C-alpha cells in the first residue's frame, strides 16, 4: 500500500503540523510528520538489532524467518524480540508515552517499513491493546523502498541509530552483526560509507570488522555458524575485543591460530566470570618463555571439548549453559593450565624486574643532550651533582650485591 496516497485518502494516515529534520544524501531539511495507523506498519527485518534475534528464530524454525506477508504475526514475533532485548528500557519508554504521548517522531518508508522508532512502535502497540488513544504512530514518511534504495536506506538508518547524539547504545554484538551483514556478507556498504553514516573514523570501523571476524570464527568453532544470538547471549563482545588486541602480539600465523583456539575454548567453557580480564592476563604468558607450553596444554584440552560438541544445528544457548559448561573437570583443567603458566610468567617477570629497571634507567641517561649541560647555571649544576652522587651510591650498592 502507498501510505502517502492511499493511506491519506482512506484515513489511515493523517497529516500533522509537526516536522522532523533528516539528512539524506548530504542534504538536511525538515520533513512533515504524519499520524499512521499501527496496523499498516511493520518492523524492519534489516535492522541490526532485529537481525540478531531473527538468527535465533531461524535456528528454532528450520531456517525459516518470520515473513512480512504474515502481517500481525510477523510484528508479534519481532515485538517479542524487542521487549526481551531490553525490558527495562521498554517499560520506561512505555510509561513515558502513556503519560505524555509520543514525543519524538519515527521514520518509515512508503510501504510501511519502520527504519527508526522500533521501541516507540512497540510501546504503542502494547498500549493500543487497552486504549484506542494509542493506535497511531507519528513518523516521517520517505518515498523509498528497500528494493530500489537499499543502500541509501541503510545509510540513513545507521545515521539515525548511531550517528546522532543521545541515542541508546546498541548491544555490542548487534553492532558486529550489522557490520557482518552490511560490509562483509552482502557488501551493501563500503567501510567509508559505513563510517560516514555512523559519523565515526574508518579506523574504528575496521577495528570492529576484526572483532566481527573473530565472532564468526568463534561461532564456526562451536559448530554454530551465523547463530549470532548465541554470541549475544554469551556476551562475548568484550572478550573478543581483548583477543583482537592480544593477537597483534603473536609472532606467526600458527601462533595466532593456536591462541584463538585457546581463547575460544575458554570462552565456551566460561573458565572465568570476567573473560575480558582473563584474555588480558594471557598477555603476560604470550610475552614469556612459557607460551609454547601453555598453548600445547590448552590445545590438548580444546580438542577434547571440540570432539564432544554436537553437530551443526544442534548447538544452542541452553545446551552450552546446561551441558557443555557443566563439565567442571574440563573447566578446571583449563583454569589450572592458565594459572600455572601465569604464575611461571609472573615469577620470571619479577626476577627480571631489576634488569628491566636498570635498562630503562640507562636509556633515560643516554637520552641526555650533553650540550644542554654547558648552559646550566650554578644552581642547576649543583642539582645535577647531587643526583649523580645519589646514582653513584645506588650503583655501588647494586654492585655490592652481585655475586660475580
Question: Could you give a quick summary of the protein structure above?
Answer:
The chain is 62% helix and 9% strand. The chain has helices at residues 3-9, 48-60, 72-85, 87-100, 118-128, 150-163, 172-185, 191-198, 202-221, 228-233, 237-247, 253-269, 275-286, 291-307, 317-324, 328-366, 370-373, 378-400, and strands at residues 13-24, 27-37, 106-109, 114-116, 136-142. The longest helix has 39 residues, at 328-366.
General description of the model:
With about 400 residues, the chain is of the alpha+beta class. It has helices at about 5-10, 50-60, 70-85, 85-100, 120-130, 150-165, 170-185, 190-200, 200-220, 230-235, 235-245, 255-270, 275-285, 290-305, 315-325, 330-365, 370-375, 380-400; strands at about 15-25, 25-35, 105-110, 115, 135-140. Strands 1-2-5-3-4 form a five-stranded mixed beta sheet. The protein is extended, with a radius of gyration of 29 Å.
Helicity level, as a percent range? 55-70%
Q: Any idea what the radius of gyration is?
A: 29 Å
Q: What structural class do the secondary elements suggest?
A: alpha+beta
Largest β sheet strand count, sense and barrel closure: 5 strands, mixed
Runs in which pLDDT lies below 50 for 5 or more consecutive residues are none
| Approximate shape | extended
- The fraction of residues assigned to DSSP E strands is 5-15%
Q: Major sheet: order of its strands?
A: 1-2-5-3-4
Helical stretch count? 18
State the end-to-end CA separation.
91 Å
Order of helices and strands: HEEHHHEEHEHHHHHHHHHHHHH
Mean pLDDT: 86
Question: Can you count the beta strands?
Answer: 5
Amino acid at each position: 500500500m502507498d501510505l502517502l496516497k492511499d493511506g491519506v485518502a482512506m484515513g489511515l494516515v493523517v497529516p500533522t503540523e509537526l516536522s522532523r529534520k533528516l539528512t539524506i544524501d548530504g542534504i538536511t531539511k525538515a520533513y512533515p510528520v504524519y499520524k499512521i495507523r499501527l496496523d499498516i506498519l511493520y518492523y524492519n527485518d534489516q535492522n541490526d538489532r532485529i537481525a540478531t534475534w531473527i538468527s535465533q528464530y531461524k535456528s528454532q524454525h528450520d531456517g525459516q524467518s518470520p515473513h512480512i506477508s504474515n502481517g500481525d504475526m510477523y510484528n508479534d514475533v519481532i515485538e517479542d524480540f524487542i521487549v526481551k532485548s531490553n525490558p527495562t528500557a521498554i517499560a520506561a519508554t512505555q510509561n513515558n508515552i502513556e503519560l505524555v504521548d509520543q514525543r519524538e517522531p519515527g521514520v518509515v518508508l512508503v510501504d510501511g517499513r519502520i527504519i527508526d522508532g522500533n521501541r516507540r512502535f512497540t510501546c504503542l502497540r502494547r498500549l493500543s491493546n487497552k486504549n484506542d488513544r494509542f493506535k497511531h504512530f507519528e513518523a516521517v514518511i520517505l518515498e523509498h523502498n528497500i528494493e530500489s534504495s537499499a543502500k541509501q536506506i541503510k545509510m540513513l538508518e545507521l545515521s539515525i541509530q548511531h550517528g546522532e547524539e543521545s541515542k541508546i547504545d546498541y548491544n555490542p554484538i548487534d553492532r558486529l552483526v550489522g557490520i557482518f551483514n552490511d560490509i562483509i556478507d552482502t557488501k551493501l556498504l563500503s567501510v567509508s560509507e559505513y563510517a560516514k553514516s555512523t559519523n565515526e573514523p574508518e579506523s574504528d570501523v575496521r577495528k570492529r570488522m576484526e572483532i566481527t571476524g573473530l565472532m564468526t570464527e568463534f561461532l564456526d568453532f562451536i559448530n554454530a555458524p551465523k547463530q549470532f544470538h548465541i554470541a549475544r547471549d554469551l556476551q562475548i563482545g568484550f572478550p573478543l575485543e581483548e583477543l583482537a588486541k592480544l593477537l597483534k602480539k603473536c609472532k606467526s600465523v600458527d601462533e595466532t591460530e593456536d591462541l584463538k583456539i585457546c581463547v575460544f575454548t575458554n570462552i565456551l567453557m566460561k573458565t572465568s566470570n570476567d573473560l575480558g580480564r582473563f584474555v588480558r592476563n594471557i598477555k603476560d604468558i604470550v610475552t614469556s618463555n612459557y607460551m609454547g607450553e601453555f598453548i600445547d596444554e590448552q590445545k590438548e584440552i580444546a580438542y577434547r571439548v571440540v570432539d564432544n560438541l554436537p553437530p551443526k544445528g544442534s548447538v544452542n544457548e541452553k545446551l552450552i549453559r546446561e551441558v557443555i559448561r557443566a563439565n567442571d573437570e574440563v573447566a578446571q583443567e583449563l583454569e589450572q593450565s592458565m594459572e600455572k603458566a601465569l604464575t611461571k610468567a609472573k615469577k620470571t617477570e619479577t626476577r627480571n624486574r631489576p634488569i628491566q629497571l636498570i635498562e630503562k634507567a640507562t636509556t633515560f641517561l643516554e637520552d641526555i643532550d650533553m650540550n644542554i649541560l654547558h648552559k646550566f647555571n650554578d644552581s642547576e649544576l649543583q642539582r645535577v651533582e647531587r643526583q649523580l652522587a645519589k646514582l653513584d651510591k645506588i650503583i655501588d650498592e647494586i654492585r655490592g650485591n652481585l655475586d660475580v
